[in-house]
């Protein structure tokens, strides 16, 4: 369903007190979506549950950011980052996301928990040009090299600063 949706110029904005919450299993399939997630995504709860979380991935998002997200989560760390999502109608909305691994009683990973909130305009004015540049190098690179080149560009832009520290500072 996701691949057939064409992005539009429509953009919606989270309200100051909105929190989008979701839980996924280890493979990224949605097992919980709160009402705010349903509202902004435009999907019904039934459409979201058991779907891959990337159902809302906007094509303006560089794959290098998601590579960083997965590496961070698989190392047992939490991920903070800015993400542009796409709703069912093709519109977009930006979020500041915190994603953390979830564990069972034996400390085995069982999934991921994500809380997203409204990003600041100042932060988006910094992150959007970086993401556009990452996306451009991904499109110009071959499929095998795209993520690596994009991730390297981000690393170079951060000048030794950790992505998590960077996004929390802007």
What name goes with the CATH superfamily of the domain at 2-119? PAS domain
What string, H for helix and E for strand, traces the elements in order?
A: EEHHHEEEHHH
Q: Describe the sheet with the most strands.
A: 5 strands, antiparallel
User: How would the global form be characterised?
Assistant: globular
What does this structure look like?
With 170 residues, this protein is of the alpha+beta class. It has a domain at 2-119: PAS domain (Beta-Lactamase, 2-Layer Sandwich). The protein contains 6 helices and 5 strands, in the order ββαααβββααα. The protein has helices at 35-41, 45-48, 63-74, 121-140, 146-158, 163-169; strands at 19-25, 30-33, 79-86, 92-103, 109-117. A 5-stranded antiparallel beta sheet has the order 2-1-5-4-3. Strand 4 and strand 5 (109-117) form a beta hairpin. Helix 4 packs antiparallel against helix 5. The radius of gyration is 16 Å and the shape is globular.
Map the helices and strands:
Blueprint: E1 19-25, E2 30-33, H1 35-41, H2 45-48, H3 63-74, E3 79-86, E4 92-103, E5 109-117, H4 121-140, H5 146-158, H6 163-169
Antiparallel strand pairs: 1-2, 1-5, 3-4, 4-5
What is shown here, in short?
This protein has six helices and five strands. The chain has helices at residues 35-41, 45-48, 63-74, 121-140, 146-158, 163-169; strands at 19-25, 30-33, 79-86, 92-103, 109-117.
List keywords for this structure.
Beta-Lactamase; globular; 5-stranded antiparallel beta sheet; 170 residues
């Amino acid at each position: 369903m996701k691949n057939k949706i064409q992005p539009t110029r429509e953009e919606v904005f989270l309200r100051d007190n909105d929190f989008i919450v979701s839980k996924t299993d280890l493979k990224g399939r949605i097992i919980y979506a709160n009402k705010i997630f349903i509202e902004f995504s435009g999907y019904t709860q039934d459409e979201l549950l058991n779907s891959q979380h990337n159902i809302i991935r906007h094509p303006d998002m560089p794959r290098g950011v998601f590579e960083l997200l997965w590496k961070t989560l698989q190392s047992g760390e939490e991920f903070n980052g800015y993400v542009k999502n796409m709703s069912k109608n093709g519109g977009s909305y930006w979020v500041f996301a915190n994603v953390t691994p979830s564990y069972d009683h034996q400390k085995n990973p069982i999934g991921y928990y994500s809380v997203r909130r409204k990003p600041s305009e100042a932060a988006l004015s910094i992150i959007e040009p970086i993401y556009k540049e990452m996306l451009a190098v991904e499109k110009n690179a071959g499929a095998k090299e795209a993520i690596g080149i994009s991730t390297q560009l981000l690393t170079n832009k951060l000048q030794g600063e950790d992505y998590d520290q960077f996004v929390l500072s802007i």
